[in-house]
Amino acid sequence: MRHYLMVRPRYFDVEYSINPWMDPAKPTDTELAVTQWEWLRDLYLDLGHRVDLLDPRPGLPDMVYAANGATVVNGRALVARFRHHYRRPESAAYLRWFAAHGFRDVRQARWTNEGEGDLLVAGSRILAGSGFRTDPRAHEEAAEFFGLPVVGLTLTDPRHYHLDTALAVLADDLIAYWPEAFTEDSRRQLERLYPDAVIASAADAAAFGLNAVSDGRHVILPQAATRLTAQLRERGFEPIGADLSELLNGGGSVKCCTLELRHPPASDPGVQP
């Protein structure tokens, strides 16, 4: 069972542009966004996972992208420090939520750090993106806070402004990614660490297919990523296609809407929410 934190898109809208997917001139449908989000939440519950909710705040239309709010490992929460001023007030809501729900060590990042948007936990390491949002200095901060090695990866394509739009963690030792989103040095690192990785096509990456959530068996990903869906099935996963087309107007999909709350092992005496 996985434990997720989500934020209902009650106030979802595209009022500004902070990534290439956002066009304030394009109409948005908040009711449709809520319907699509509810389908995803209900799917997690049907799969046996736990979903907690953080109340949305008026004036924060991007708050639905909960993955950006923090990174949580072993009950410790490192809350985001957003790059763009539009999203900075979200951090206070996450700090309050974690403090109120028994997490044993909670603090806001010192350096610009957009949570699981750029810090993806992969088994005993963290894959950390930079290039557009998260400050590279946040990588060292995360390593010290969580006590885990951090692998820095540099993004080069503005359409893939967060790591979770170009790479998905499928299991502790397996990822899927689109190599063209990374510098040559970062590609070499990924090839060395994950020689059996699933390599996504340009079309599936453009469809946000890598903005996916895996529980180790099921992989929920945008339904438009058809080739990637077939590749995952060949690897023994059970892919589930999602339609979050309205939320893609803000530059997010399945993973962006899903913050995983990782608790201490059962033998750890620390507080478990």
Automatic annotation (TrEMBL):
The entry's family comment says: Belongs to the DDAH family.
Mind telling me which NCBIfam families this protein's record contains?
DiMArgaseDdahMtb
A GO MF term: dimethylargininase activity
A family per Pfam: DDAH_eukar
Q: Which organism is it from?
A: Amycolatopsis rifamycinica
* Protein name (record): Amidinotransferase
Set out the biological process GO terms recorded for this chain's protein.
arginine metabolic process; citrulline metabolic process; positive regulation of nitric oxide biosynthetic process
- Give the SUPFAM superfamilies listed for this entry: Pentein (SSF55909)
What PANTHER family does this protein's entry cite?
DIMETHYLARGININASE, DIMETHYLARGININE DIMETHYLAMINOHYDROLASE
The UniProt keywords, alphabetically, are: Hydrolase, Transferase
The catalytic residues are 162 (proton donor), 256 (nucleophile)
